[in-house]
Here is the input.
Amino acid sequence: MKIAVLGAGAYGCALAQILNENKNEVTIWTPFENEVKELTETRKSPKLPNIELYNNIQITNDLKQALYQTELIVEAIPTAFLSESIKKVKKYYQNTPICIATKGIEQNTNLFVYNVVKNILNTEKIAVISGPSFAIDIAGNYPVGLTLACQDKETIDIIAKALTNNHFKLRKSYDIIGTELCGSVKNIIAIAAGILKGLNMPESTSAMLITESLHDIKALIKGLGGDGSTVLSYAGFGDLLLTATSPKSRNYSFGYLIGSKASKEEINNYIKNTTIEGLYTLKSISELVKNKDVDIPIINLMEQIIYQNKNPEELINFLIQKP
Here is the structure.
């Protein structure tokens, strides 16, 4: 199968490795010429230490070439640049199945990635993958499981065939709303978990946070029209468990700085030099919750801590007092 991976970040390159391993013809597209040059010459991404890209993976900044006769598009572009990139894709798009690997909500519009892509390309052939998976673990061929959510049977079968192998597992779902919500909100909870770690709270308190958060996420999914049981999927509990317990998570590390009372300079430098998905998702989720009249206390509290300088220790009080 001829497959185009849009985005040459860590996750895009990791998925390209899996797709190529499964005997697909893979091309990675990036708009940056210097990225094409580096990946082509070294076969290594600075974002994936010690991983060498397979030699027959092509890298290009020519979008027309990348999409020519493509049978599947894998979208792994950061949310901030998604609309701009997908509008370019539209010029060459031929109703090809699309697998979205980006998590998050677009700022200003408060749209999930699925809706951003669907609105621009006007297609139903869109699926979302989400779950507990650091890019380095995917590229290292460790066992990984993700949720594959789609409402079109042909599309879900094509993507499952392209990605599934003896160390990359997909569980199918029809709940796109719940899958995307889980993939977005877990980054906010990961910040909260990092705060607890910075406050020197033990694992027992972290487990308390994760458990309480599952109830809130379930309520949010149901409030927005999704299936509450999705909270127990790879995209839900699985991803939350990974992101909210690992210092490899940028969101968790950001929360740790807040909880440990790091200086404003140190925190601002981290924000400046690191992509913190939960930081941007928090604004959009807060707006979404308000517009839908859904009460999610943990979201409200995190907004106050991050943007209104509320004492991080209020998170502990919240957990104790929450019914």
Notes: Residues 185-321 form a domain with the N-(1-d-carboxylethyl)-l-norvaline Dehydrogenase; domain 2 fold (CATH 1.10.1040.10).
